[in-house]
Design a protein that fits this description.
Length: 287
């Protein structure tokens, strides 16, 4: 088969993100004209990690597109935990700020868990607060982490059945792997969570109907590690001098997959779009 004929197998994250953003834009208009509320997001970036700067910029651009007010709080790398907590406290109290986003990772001397717990659960656009994570675990999904939420949206849009399917997740982070597992269990998938300590990853990945890879290892998943017809979400962003690469050897694996996300242009744009959705949810709940 020529490379062109594999095109229909690609899940276009940019197109899906545009769809989600369109829904948010109309929700924002509705909230403004009928309830007089203009949704506002405050982003916090500590330090000058180049990738984090790009992601925060992408989030601000998305806010502009959908009509969300966004304020940018940039703190220098030497910021103390107390200073960070003081900023979060003031944003929690600010009625014009409906949602708060603390960009991760934080500089090594700071304590991300304590900072995330300081964000009011009702303003937790990222869904990282233990209250929101706890709700997710018991099947009450409200504010949930953006990347897994984007993947669930893509599964729905592409009519991929989840119930009873074997899902393998590679990576057990709090940002992607663990919440992804909970969201899929909530939908009655059979979920295996693998990670860097998993012995014989291939043994698991070969059984996957749906494979979510968030390991941060360039081209970890090769064509001989997946079965024909698998649906793959590649969350990896591995930056090298000549470009950005995913955790999946896309060029070869697409020959076996029925659907697959590319990097870039797959899960990343969806993550940002779901954040917009969450800001709108926070603003709606504030009423
Ligand atoms: N507070 C949070 N921090 C982090 C999260 C998160 O969801 N909340 N996730 C990641 C980074 N991230 C969002 O913050 C993110 C990563 C990638 C993209 C994206 O659109 N990537 C582009 C490629 C961009 C490039 O070339 O650098 C793509 O995939 O097309 C958006 C958001 C960690 N931190």
């Amino acid at each position: 088969m020529s490379d062109e004929s594999y095109e229909s197998r690609i899940i276009d994250g940019k197109v899906l993100a545009q769809q989600v953003e369109e829904e948010v834009r109309s929700g924002v208009e509705d909230l403004e004209s009928n309830r007089g509320v203009s949704p506002g997001l405050a982003t916090i970036l500590v330090g000058d990690d180049p990738a984090s700067k790009i992601y925060v910029r992408l989030k601000h651009r998305a806010c502009e597109r959908v009509g969300i007010r966004a304020e940018d709080h940039f703190l220098p790398a030497e910021t103390t935990q107390e200073e960070l907590l003081a900023l979060i406290d003031s944003l929690n109290k600010n009625k014009d700020v409906h949602a708060i986003l603390l960009q991760l990772p934080l500089p090594k001397h700071l304590f991300p868990q304590e900072a995330m717990e300081a964000i009011s659960p009702s303003k937790d656009a990222d869904g990282f607060h233990p209250y929101n994570m706890g709700k997710l675990m018991i099947g009450d999904e409200g504010l949930v982490p953006c990347t897994p939420h984007g993947i669930i949206r893509a599964l729905e849009e592409y009519n991929v059945p989840v119930k009873g399917k074997n899902v393998v997740i590679v990576g057990h982070s709090n940002v992607v792997g663990k919440p992804m597992a909970a969201m899929l269990l909530n939908r009655n998938a059979t979920v295996s969570v693998c990670h860097i300590f998993t012995d014989d990853l291939k043994k698991y990945s070969l059984g996957a109907d749906i494979l979510v890879v968030a390991a941060g290892v360039k081209h970890l998943i090769k064509a001989d590690m997946v079965k024909e017809g698998v649906v793959i979400f590649d969350v990896g962003i591995n930056k090298e001098e000549d470009g950005v690469y995913g955790d999946v050897d896309f060029k070869n694996v697409i020959k076996k997959a029925s659907l697959i996300t590319p990097v870039p242009g797959g899960v990343g744009p969806l993550t940002v779009a779901m954040l917009m959705k969450h800001v709108l949810m926070c603003a709606e709940k504030s009423l």
